[in-house]
Amino acid sequence: RSACEIKGSLLSIGAETMDRDFTIYDNWKSYLGPLGFKKVRILSGWAKTESVPKRYEWEWMDNIVNDMLQQCVTPWVTLCYGNPLYTTFKDDSRGDPPRTEEAFKAWESYVAAYVKRYKDKINEYEIWNEPRYSKKISPEDYTTLVIRTTKVIKSEQPDALINILALDHKHFEASVGAIEANPLISEYAAKVLQSLKNKKFLYQINGVTYHPYTWNPDDAYSTVKKFQKMVKGFDKNLKIIQGENGAPSQFNIKRALNNYPWTEHSQAKYGLRRLIADLGHSIPTSYFSIADMFYEDEVNNKALLKARPDKTIERPKLAYYALQNVSSIFDEQFSAIDDLLFKIKTERQIAAYHFKNEEDKNIIALWLSDNIPDDPDLFITTDAEFKKCRFDDPVYVNMLTGEVAEINQELIIQKSNSVKFINIVIPDFPVLIAERSILAVLP
Q1: Domain tally for the chain?
Q2: Model pTM greater than 0.90?
Q3: Cα–Cα distance between 432 and 363 in angstroms, integer?
Q4: Can you give 296-314 as a three-state secondary structure string?
Q5: C-alpha triplet 437, 442, 443: angle, nearest 5°
Q6: Same domain for 372 and 287
Q7: 33, 197, 382, 421: which is deepest, by most CB within 10 A?
């Protein structure tokens, strides 16, 4: 299903580097709506918009935002990066945040102009990307950036949603553990949240974003649960958002998850496991990213679309089709149920998540979760019993291929409040046991 055929979901796709022309919107926009994700993360591009002091060139952003909305995909915007007119640049193309009063005034003017222009089209903003990792912004300086930027946003758009932190993987994990190893890093998130609370400003913040680049996507969730507990300890109304994550589709020398023999096949398995597990924890989630990005030193190929050297699109990768399968099923009608009890005969670790719609139709997603996604596929055949769950006409869905298979009725044992499947195949990527009636099955 395309985005216009879906009312809502927790799924977002990343389109973050258009501000530096690492990827070109017009080259891949025809793939956006058909992906079926309802939101898209973009960077605001201060330097690209204001190349002459106090003169804003909006045409590039207008083209992007208006077309995205026509495709029923709503942008959420990370306000960043630096601008050489006002801030320093060192080592990369991102630039520092404002550090002088002159730079802050220019930044605030830009943010005010941005929000005023798009407030009828965009209602969710994130303040900077990976502040601790990319530019070593101290907790104190980041708190100041959050407060000053939020005040500007709210002056133009009082009901805007504000997300903060965008914690990179290293600091996301460190924020809930290993304090003795590096107190400065470990306490970064807590220091920012505590400072905002002390200044009676935390109530203005809606969400805290994080980027969990774990080699095995399933390894993140023990940390995610601790992170969520920590965040809600500051304010129970704060939500956590998985704001950026994805795996390369081939060997990369630099950046997250590098120096590993990724393939398009293992990339697709990684994306499926990350997104469905996030949905299983009721966490809004964003896959990074939609199109290969041509950084100055390397192609970042975590994307769903394979790009040519001229940045045009050669073809969708397997992950594009796999994540289409996710969006076509997991829309706003389904909610994660956290009471799933299951018994599976195996020594392997199994991820299992239970989803249900308002008509009490069930989906169980499960996979082998104890390995880094790899080639070839791993699988076991075993018995699986699920409590507090029943099916009328269950089918077996391969989320990697989208294939729907019959389940032999003789291999299903239904009881009053449980169901057991005999000789069910569980691979190292998600499969579903789902009611046939909830699926749009093509002949």
Answers
A1: 2
A2: yes
A3: 7
A4: CCCEECCCCEEECCCCCEE
A5: 110
A6: no
A7: 421
